[in-house]
Write a structure and sequence with these properties.
The chain is an alpha/beta fold and 344 residues long. It has one domain: L-arginine/glycine Amidinotransferase, Chain A. The chain has helices at residues 26-40, 53-65, 85-88, 111-114, 119-122, 124-132, 165-168, 182-193, 239-251, 301-312, 333-336; strands at residues 8-14, 45-49, 73-76, 91-95, 101-106, 136-138, 140-141, 144-145, 154-155, 160-164, 197-201, 218-222, 225-230, 261-266, 271-273, 276-278, 286-287, 291-296, 317-322, 337-341. The two termini are 14 Å apart.
């Protein structure tokens, strides 16, 4: 699996339509998507999943209104249950020799072992493989299909993958693969992502209904460097878990045995809506060809986070995307997008 900063052919998004994803806020979410696409499209094709001609018409109207060049947009009429393309969309893998080729690692999706509506989403990788005429590798262990969401992993493109024990190893709550232990899970990651090294962190952040996705915690920004969220307030709910992650990464090693460079990324102040804690995190950024999109939350740390990410990506424009409404759906920019690597 290539790293996210490697060249893309396209970015994939599912145009929003399910009102239960953003109760009472679905309409303004369309305009947030418009801004996301406007920032991605100058550097690559944007493939947008829509349910019907009417759904596509509404998406086109928004995109044209915000000034998106429609020559950079391809609509795919693949019906979905929800819009979290990172988790159910195709996970693309690539080989460089004997000649470059891109394929799809087909993992199953069960709505984070939490929601009942997932069957349309689960079919997207196979639809993508047929449309793109790509080979698809069905992820299995012992004859069983393997469940895995894209937001539960992050790779450096050279052999190392990050994940959390809470998400992939917990056998009591939101269990993706009943009976799988650490060794079996690592075997699957090695077989289907082409990695040789797994770095495990512990728990996810407060408010995360995925039960521990890595993309709200810690992200690779180059082959040797990660950003890790850090909380300064000792009384805050995330403080202890994030400090534990920091200690784990001090002892972690990359695929070649070397240490990681770890850069601290602040957390925004706790964000609530209607009494519900939301998983607001600057780590949920998305690296496109043209720009790095970073969620912002009307918080004093917005500027700090944007500055840190800008220093880490000096050759890309770093753009803040207002995500206070977006995170009401329990995810932001990285959760909505999935990269398709360039073929060569």
């Amino acid at each position: 699996m290539p790293a996210e900063w490697e060249p893309h052919e396209a970015s994939w998004l599912g145009w929003p339509h399910n009102p239960t994803d953003w109760p009472g806020k679905l309409e303004p979410i369309h305009w947030v998507y418009g801004e996301i696409v406007r920032k991605i499209a100058p550097g690559e094709l944007v493939r947008i999943l829509v349910n019907s001609p009417a759904h596509e018409f509404r998406a086109r109207k928004v995109l044209k209104s915000v000034g998106v060049s429609m020559s950079r947009i391809q609509f795919l009429r693949f019906p979905t249950n929800r819009g979290w393309t990172r988790d159910f969309g195709p996970i693309f893998i690539k080989r460089d020799k004997p000649r470059p080729k891109v394929a799809i690692a087909r993992f199953r999706f069960n709505a984070w072992a939490r929601y009942p509506d997932w069957k349309k989403d689960d079919g997207i990788p196979e639809r993508a493989a047929r449309r793109l005429k790509m080979k698809m590798f069905r992820a299995q262990l012992g004859g069983r299909d393997v469940v895995l969401e894209g937001g539960s992993i992050d790779v450096n493109g050279s052999g190392t993958v990050l994940s959390t024990e809470e998400c992939l190893l917990d056998q009591k709550r939101q269990v993706r693969n009943p009976g799988f232990d650490r060794g079996q899970t690592e075997a699957v990651l090695r077989e289907y992502l082409g990695v040789t090294n797994v770095i495990w962190l512990g728990k996810g952040i407060a408010g995360d209904d995925t039960h521990g996705h890595i993309d709200d915690l810690c992200r690779f920004v180059n082959r040797r460097t990660v950003v890790l969220c850090r909380e300064k307030n000792r009384k805050e709910k995330n403080y202890r878990a994030l400090e534990e992650h920091w200690e784990r990464l001090r002892g972690a090693r990359l695929e070649d045995g070397s240490k990681l460079d770890v850069v601290a990324l602040p957390m925004p102040s706790p964000l609530f809506f209607d009494g519900v804690r939301l998983p607001a995190s600057y780590a949920n950024f998305y690296i496109s060809n043209a720009a790095v999109l970073v969620p912002t939350f009307n918080d004093p740390n917005d500027r700090v986070a944007l500055g840190i990410v800008s220093e880490l990506f000096p050759k890309r424009s770093v753009v803040g995307i207002h995500s206070v409404d977006l995170v009401w759906g329990f995810g932001t920019l990285h959760c909505l997008t999935q990269q398709q690597p360039a073929r060569s």
